[in-house]
Design brief:
Rossmann fold, single chain
Amino acid sequence: MNRDNRFCGWIDVDLSEEGEKQARDAAELMRPYNFRFGHVYTSILKRSFNTAQIVLETLNHPEVEITRTWRLNERHYGALQGLDKEETAKKFGEAMVKVWRRSYDIRPPPVEESSEHYPANNPVFDVVPREFLPNGESLKLTLERVMPFWESEIVPELRKGKPVLVAGMYIRSYFILAHGNSLRGLIKMLDKMTEAEIIEFSLPTCVPVVYELNEDLSVKSKKYLLDEESLKVSYTLSTHHKQQQLNMIIGQDASRKQRNQKRIKRSKCLICF
């Protein structure tokens, strides 16, 4: 559905062939570091779960347990779900659609309860408490539902010294595989971003980012597992970022080129892609 340029959100579509290839490519970027996964967390959407399976199989860790949580689901786009983005812009105006997509605390129009895209009408979401089912989310609401997962599930495991792989992120041996907007919630918290900064931020598609964390879980360093030229291409193809942000990312990464793979393996790590 992303390939068709539609608002996907909580629509439970499978990975496309291109998505499967991107998952394998991301795993290959991680392979030289010999990351070890004790547990994996994904959203309950199958495109997230299947990506995790592909990554683990590619890295020869198919035995690792995967836990799915609705708190890592993509942002719910309300009545926009399933709509073609260009057609939506023509109908409501590009300026209005940009407000719905890129503002921090403004929600899109709510989805009707009679719609097939209302979460209560899909048995996949029966595991979600009814009072938490969204009919449309702002970025702010998306981040607010992600943070209880971080505090209740991940932080206690990190305090025990256990490794985590969560939604495209790697923390010791725990892996999190989620979606762009739910990952932005964790990144906002880790990088201490402002609301203005996070609404302009997007991850390059399927490029692993390694966070090294201190004992207090503050960020020690951050490294993209891709060379500078390839990173530029990834940003050009997958986002509408300002060149200033890309220059900042490349500058941060270049300043750490002396950090070797052994250091990354020894540290508390978090990988996002």
